[in-house]
């Protein structure tokens, strides 16, 4: 067991949110300094529509580094890309505590954080202070809970982060801001993407080649998937979708005492559902948009399942709670071993097998 694994076990003694803040502070002060070598070149991925180049397909999902405090450190743990946020134009405290729960028996997490963050000003200052060519760092933007015009918040967020990140994610999929998921409805989504698209085209004149992704929920039926896919495909500026965020469903298999808590469920119980929704989107979209798979990933086998469902890259977060920060490196090592065994020349060769 590595030092980082021991630290992960020790930190889990703390309440979930306290453990997270302790981890962020430890990373900021340099207490955790990983030694990770260069990636096997076969792990490299270039997303087809956006052209975004990743040294490996394992990304850190938004939610871990909400305020863009430790993205440099997390890249050093071997992630191919790190997504910071969700950030809103104005700072907000989020929902009352407790609002983050470990479901240890289920390798899962429930959160109802509510976009707690320091606001776009602080966030952008931290992003802009990072050295160029550091790595692939995405910015995930959202809307303030009390905003009178939530779409205007997304437009403001996109404009603010555009010059300082590798890509932008529009998050309309959190279940913890009342009414936010309504922006996935066809009419609202058309208005959102129309106005954000105007902003993206404006910003592209100054800083080009900034991919934009839309992050959607797993709690979508066939009609909603078809509508979102059609609206997304109509946006020539939109690079792709991230599928998916947390679920409001509660599988009957959950055994933790926290299973009834309100909020979004992530971790192992989300794997099957999120992968099924990913596959449904791929059936409609094919490779016309870049698809990034998220939800329940904790192993190389889980990554391969996402790739076979249509993802070009993946993101994880909740599994770090149970497996520690070296998880990305272990997954990469296992993927390389699987490629060796199967005689594959590229991580992309898993797609379609």
Topology:
Layout: H1 3-11, H2 16-28, E1 45-46, E2 53-54, E3 58-60, H3 71-76, E4 81-87, E5 100-103, E6 108-111, H4 120-128, E7 136-141, H5 150-161, E8 167-171, H6 186-204, E9 212-216, H7 222-233, E10 240-243, E11 264-267, H8 271-285, E12 290-294, H9 300-309, E13 313-316, H10 318-323, H11 327-342
Parallel strand pairs: 3-4, 3-13, 4-7, 7-8, 8-9, 9-10, 10-12, 12-13
Antiparallel strand pairs: 1-2, 5-6, 6-11
Helix pairs in contact: 5-6, 6-7, 7-8, 8-9, 9-11
Task: Briefly characterize the structure.
With 353 residues, the protein is α/β, with parallel strands linked by helices. Helix content is 36%, strand content 16%. The protein has a single domain, classed as TIM Barrel, CATH 3.20.20.70.
Mean pLDDT: 95
Distance between the termini: 34 Å
Please tell me what the overall shape is: globular
Kindly provide the name of the CATH class: Alpha Beta
Radius of gyration: 19 Å
Please report which band the strand proportion falls in: under 5%, 5-15%, 15-25%, 25-35%, 35-45% or over 45%: 15-25%
Order of H and E elements: HHEEEHEEEHEHEHEHEEHEHEHH
The CATH architecture category equals Alpha-Beta Barrel
Helix content: 25-40%
Q: How large is the count of helical segments?
A: 11
Largest sheet: 8 strands, parallel, barrel
Counting DSSP E segments of at least 2 residues, the number of strands comes to: 13
